[in-house]
Design brief:
This protein has 358 residues and is α/β, with parallel strands linked by helices. The chain is built from 13 helices and eight strands. The chain is 44% helix and 11% strand.
Length: 358
C-alpha cells in the first residue's frame, strides 16, 4: 500500500462546534483532498475516551462518566457474546458493517455526515481519513468498578484492543469505496505512546504500549488501510517511530527539536518510505494561534525542512512524504481560532505544494 502525501493538508478531527453539518462544511473547505469525519467534543459522548467504547461489554455510561462493571451477573455472558461476534466477523468480514464494531451513532454522529457528503459526490477526494483514540490512552482513561484502569486487566485490555481494531477496520471498509486507488487513512490518537513512565502511565511498560498499538495497526492493514499515529504530546518517540505505523503525526510547532533527537529512528522511518503529518500549525495555546499567520508558519516549516534534509534526504523527497497538518485538534479553541487554524493549514499546504511543483 502506498500513498503520495505531496504536502496535501490533513486535519486531526475535533472542532469546537455543536453542529456536524457546519463542521463538515469547514472540513470540506480546508481539506477537500483528504476529508475526515468531524468530532465535536462539546457532546460528552464524543469525548476522546468515551467515543470509541460503544459495544464494550459491561460499559456503564452515566452522568457524563463511563466505566466497565464486571460484577454484574450477566457480564460473563456479555463477554462471551462479544468474542463470539468477533470470531464471526473474523471468519466473514462481510458481517463487519452491521456488527457491534461500527461507530455508534450516539457517540460518532459525524461519521454518517461525511458519508452523506461522499455519497452525494460533494467531495471527490484523493483519499479519506478516519480516526480513533488508541488503546493505551483509552485503557488508562477508563476504569472498572474498583477504579482500576482497564489496561491493567488482561481480559479487559484484550477486549479493548480487539474492539478498537475492529472499529478501525469498519472505518476502512466504509471509506474505501470513495478513495479510488488510494487506501483510506486511519489515525490512532495515542498521546499515551510517549508517556509511559510518567505518573499516569507508571505501571505500563514500553513493550505493552508497542504491542497494543501494533495490534490496532495490524487490523487497519488487514482491511487495506494505512495507519497513522497522532501524538501531540512530548516524550520518547522511539516506540512510535519503530512501530508498524505508516504515518506519524506530531506537534512540529512546539516539539520539533525534541522529535529530531530521535535521529536514527526517524531516518529509518523515512527511509522505509513512511509519511510525516507535519503538525506545524499550532492549536494548543490560543495566544500562539492568534499571533501566527501563514507566512510566519511557512518560514518556520522551511527552516525545519532544511534541518531534516541535513540528515541525508532531499527536500523534495521529504515533501513527497509530508502531509501538512495542525499540531492537534481544535476542540479546545474558540470557533474563530479553529477556523483560523483550518485556513492556515490549507494555505500552508498550497504554498508547500507550489514549492514542490513550481
Amino acid at each position: 500500500m502506498t500513498f503520495a502525501a505531496n504536502c496535501n493538508p490533513v486535519l486531526i478531527g475535533s472542532l469546537p462546534l455543536t453542529d456536524h453539518e457546519e463542521a463538515m462544511q469547514m472540513i470540506a473547505a480546508s481539506t477537500p483532498e483528504i476529508p475526515l469525519w468531524p468530532q465535536l467534543p462539546k457532546n460528552p459522548k464524543e469525548g476522546m475516551v468515551r467515543q470509541f467504547l460503544t459495544g464494550f461489554p459491561g460499559l456503564i455510561d452515566e452522568k457524563g462518566r463511563c466505566m466497565v462493571d464486571t460484577t454484574k451477573a450477566d457480564f460473563s455472558d456479555k463477554m462471551t457474546f462479544f468474542y463470539e461476534e468477533f470470531l464471526r466477523v473474523e471468519e466473514d468480514p462481510f458481517l463487519l458493517t452491521n456488527s457491534r464494531f461500527g461507530l455508534g451513532r450516539d457517540s460518532a454522529p459525524g461519521f454518517p455526515v461525511l458519508m452523506r457528503w461522499l455519497n452525494d459526490a460533494r467531495l471527490t477526494p484523493l483519499t479519506a481519513k478516519g480516526q480513533e483514540t488508541g488503546p493505551v490512552t483509552v485503557g488508562v482513561g477508563v476504569t472498572d468498578q474498583t477504579g482500576k484502569s482497564i489496561i491493567a486487566d488482561d481480559n479487559l485490555r484484550d477486549i479493548l484492543v480487539r474492539l478498537l481494531g475492529m472499529k478501525a477496520r469498519w472505518q476502512v471498509v466504509r471509506l474505501k469505496p470513495f478513495t479510488g486507488d488510494n487506501p483510506p487513512l486511519i489515525f490512532i490518537d495515542e498521546p499515551g505512546m510517549v508517556s509511559f513512565g510518567s505518573s499516569g502511565f507508571a505501571a505500563i511498560s514500553e513493550k505493552l504500549v508497542v504491542e497494543t498499538v501494533n495490534e490496532v495497526i495490524s487490523a487497519i492493514h488487514k482491511e487495506g488501510g494505512l495507519a497513522g499515529i497522532h501524538i501531540c504530546a512530548n516524550g520518547d518517540w522511539g516506540p512510535a517511530l519503530a512501530s508498524e505505523a505508516d504515518i506519524i503525526s506530531f506537534d512540529a510547532y512546539f516539539y520539533f527539536d525534541n522529535f529530531i533527537l530521535f535521529k536514527d529512528q526517524l531516518c529509518d522511518f523515512l527511509s522505509r518510505g513512511k509519511t510525516l503529518a507535519w503538525g506545524i500549525v499550532p492549536t494548543g495555546d490560543p495566544r500562539v494561534v492568534e499571533k501566527e499567520n501563514t507566512e510566519s508558519l511557512f518560514t518556520k516549516w522551511l527552516e525545519q525542512l532544511s534541518v531534516l534534509a541535513s540528515f541525508g534526504f532531499t527536500e523534495k523527497q521529504l515533501m513527497q512524504q509530508t502531509l501538512i497538518a495542525p499540531s492537534c485538534g481544535t476542540g479546545s479553541l474558540t470557533p474563530r481560532l479553529a477556523a483560523k487554524v483550518l485556513t492556515m493549514t490549507r494555505e500552508l499546504s498550497l504554498l508547500a505544494r507550489k514549492k514542490l511543483n513550481p
